[in-house]
Design a protein that fits this description.
The complex is a heterodimer of chains A (about 100) and B (about 575).
Chain A (H helix, E strand, L loop, with lengths): L1 H10 L3 E3 H7 L4 H14 L2 E4 L27 E4 L17
Antiparallel strand pairs in A: 2-3
Helix pairs in contact in A: 2-3
Chain B lengths: L1 E2 L15 H15 L9 H10 L2 H8 L4 H19 L3 H20 E2 L8 H9 L5 H19 L1 H25 L6 H18 L2 H17 L1 H15 L7 H7 L3 H7 L6 H10 L9 H11 L4 H24 L11 E3 L9 H35 L17 H7 L13 H9 L5 H18 L7 H22 L19 H13 L4 H14 L4 H11 L1 H28 L4
The chains are: A alpha+beta (about 100), B mainly alpha (about 575).
């Protein structure tokens, strides 16, 4: 099942929402999120989010605690293309 | 969905892995059972952790005297199994656990044949629809800008009245008490700081209403859908779908939007998106649109502001399309999954938090960058260049600011605003876009001052006026809400008289454009939308993409802005508009 999720994300044509993918795989969205979180920990899927790091340099006025404008973008997941030979070079803490 | 309940004493289901894995687990468990150091753990659990490569358990094992025989055995088993399964063992084991759970769930749960749609699913079917999604996005943007231009107008007028009236009057009185009335200190305080900073602060209600509308969209979960819908459009045009995520951030501020390009995988996509992001109209440009729309297009403020935002998106998409098929061609698209949060009813507390956070950032900027720039502009206005004036007592046309700004005003002459006033405002706009407005308030305000005669009032009369005018402004704001859907409750009343500053701005544009004031104002707005971003955004571009691309952005955007503004003005004149 995990492999199927990774395969679907790698082979997806265009952009999918998490809900659409969960429906396609006949999974509960919460279960799919758990599976994606596993692949993120494994480094095979990257989770990107625009965080409030934008003004951490202090260059943009006085918002060092985080840019108030950076929160609008949603989280996205994309496959990380890796060389199969590099798999298992580093032990990971499992998701039990 | 129904669930079957098993009595507690029913058969326990245990996770059984494939035979090869079970054999390995048993082999390792048997060895671990003999280790007194691990007696507190279940040997089977420990064996699974070791197969999965749990760093903590491995570390504990390494310090044991038996590790010399245990670790090579473990390595041999792991290598053998990984070769067999062709993947990391933790992936294999977790996958088999998920399969087990899935099978178990299927045994105890009966799902309805058709997947029941949640409310979020039902809304998404419409909102993220392939054809309806973009019109819905545009319609919501339209409502946002109607709120900012129409609903916020009464409060804007109230703040303007307070700053130009009582606050200025109190400052003058205080300075008179201090014995500096009529000196350059009074000019600095009134014509420099109050006119400059106050000229920007009057737009706080407008920005608050923009942040209110954006907070509603963000907290309800719609903003993620907007990104999703626009992403599909971008992808259809061959652009990187994820480019629109930084662009959404760019509606607030260009600086975090430039940093948001880090979420793109490839450098080419990052640079291309970084070049396009500044075309999104940041909230700092909104005061410029509102000011000039109020002067030249008082009945069409919402359309003007909406058009500017839309034009920014169109220019970004067109340029992105051209670049993607020329300079940045050949980058493979990577698929991605977007998390769309369920729709929620926004809370008052959440909306207030967003509004306050962003408005506070704006006000902080007014008291720092904008105030410093206003002082510098005042200083340049105070220094005489030629003529018979002295410091802080010179004709503004003879000032250093007019001389500096006038030296490149001719560049803008074909665009309809070749005056030193306009070029000066654009020049200072490089510091921050709001400064365009504060500079205009300073340089046009000098002329306006001469025309306005204020009646002398007492402090308490001023307080009373502030309170009563606030009440009227709130009442008018409520009455303005139906304007969003085109119902005008103000029709019976007379149109508001333009202020002296507005008259001064109108005359300035009329003069510089040979009588095509409205067209030149539109051309100016287009230029402000598209031209070189502020210095902080430029520094961010340099940090993210290097010097070369920063210059491409600075010069390229200036050229694009000049060209589009030229088309607007000259095209309008040729067609007999304005």
């Amino acid at each position: 099942m995990l492999q199927q999720v990774l395969h679907e994300i790698e082979q997806a044509q265009g952009t999918w929402s998490l809900t659409e993918l969960a429906r396609k795989l006949e999974l509960e969205p919460g279960v799919l999120e758990g599976m994606i979180a596993f692949w993120v920990r494994k480094g095979r899927i990257a989770a990107d989010r625009v965080e409030g790091q934008a003004c951490s340099s202090g260059s943009c006025g006085d918002c060092a605690a985080g840019c108030p404008f950076a929160g609008a973008a949603p989280r996205t997941f994309r496959p990380v293309l890796i060389d199969p030979a590099t798999i298992s070079k580093q032990p990971e803490h499992p998701a039990e | 969905m129904t669930v079957s309940y098993f009595p507690l004493h029913a058969r326990r289901s245990t996770v059984n892995y494939e035979q090869r894995l079970e054999e390995a687990i048993t082999q390792i468990s048997n060895v671990l059972t003999m280790l007194p150091e691990f007696q507190q753990y279940q040997p089977r659990w420990l064996a699974i952790q070791l197969l999965e490569g749990d760093a903590d358990v491995l570390q504990q094992l390494q310090v044991l005297p038996q590790s010399g025989t245990l670790l090579p055995m473990l390595d041999e088993i792991r290598t053998r199994l990984q070769a067999h399964y062709g993947d990391d063992l933790d992936v294999v084991l977790t996958d088999q656990r998920y399969t087990f759970v899935n099978r178990l769930v299927q045994q105890v749960m009966t799902r309805p044949a058709a997947h029941a749609l949640t409310l979020s699913d039902k809304i998404d079917r419409v909102v993220t629809h392939r054809w309806l999604g973009i019109p819905i996005f545009l319609a919501l943007m339209w409502i946002v800008f109607k709120i900012t231009s129409d609903v916020a107008a009464p409060l804007l007028d109230w703040v303007d009245g307070v700053i130009t009236g009582p606050i200025t009057s109190w400052a003058v009185t205080l300075l008179t008490f201090a014995g500096v009335s009529g000196t350059w200190i009074e000019s600095l305080a009134v014509d420099g700081i109050i006119a400059g900073v106050g000229g920007v602060l009057v737009f706080v209600p407008v920005l608050m209403s923009l942040y209110f509308a954006l907070a509603l969209l963000e907290d309800s979960g719609y903003m993620a859908r907007a990104a999703f819908v626009m992403d599909r459009l971008m992808r259809t045009l061959g652009l990187h779908g994820k480019s629109f995520l930084p662009m959404i951030v760019g509606f607030g501020c260009t600086v975090p939007a430039i940093y948001a390009t880090r979420t793109l995988e490839h450098e080419k996509d990052r640079i291309l998106t970084g070049l396009l992001v500044p075309f999104m109209s940041c909230s700092a440009r909104l005061p410029v649109y509102i000011l000039l729309a109020a002067v030249f297009f008082p009945l069409y403020g919402g359309i003007i502001v909406f058009s500017m935002y839309l034009l920014g998106i169109i220019v970004a998409i067109v340029l992105g399309f051209i670049f993607k098929h020329t300079v940045f061609r050949g980058q493979e698209q990577i698929p991605f999954i977007m998390e769309l949060p369920p729709y929620r009813l926004p809370t008052l507390k959440g909306i207030w938090f967003h509004m306050w956070e962003k408005t506070a950032a704006f006000v902080r900027k007014a008291w720092t960058i904008i105030m410093i720039t206003s002082i510098v502009v005042w200083l340049l206005i105070a220094i005489p260049v030629g003529g018979s004036g002295s410091f802080a007592d010179t004709d503004i046309d003879q000032s250093a600011f007019a001389a500096i700004s006038g030296s490149f005003a001719q560049v803008f002459a074909p665009l309809g605003f070749g005056s030193w006033q306009s070029s000066g405002a654009l020049l200072t706009g490089f510091v921050a876009k709001e400064v365009v407005v504060s500079t205009m308030a300073q340089i046009y305000g000098v002329d306006a001052e001469e025309e306005e005669q204020a009646e002398a009032t007492t402090f308490f009369e001023d307080l009373g006026t502030i309170a009563t005018s606030f009440g009227s402004a709130v009442f008018d704001t409520v009455r303005s809400i139906p304007l969003i859907v085109g119902i005008n409750l103000f029709e019976a009343e007379e149109e508001e008289e333009p202020t002296a500053l507005m008259d001064s701005i109108r005359n300035g544009f009329e003069e510089s454009s040979g009588g095509h004031g409205a067209l030149s104002a539109l051309s100016f707005l287009v230029f402000v939308l598209l031209y070189t971003p502020c210095m902080v955004a430029t520094a961010a571009a340099r940090q993210e993409f290097g010097n070369r691309w920063m210059w491409v952005s600075v010069i390229g955007q200036f050229a694009v802005a000049w060209l589009v503004a030229l088309i607007v003005f000259q095209g309008g004149v040729l067609l007999g508009l304005g």
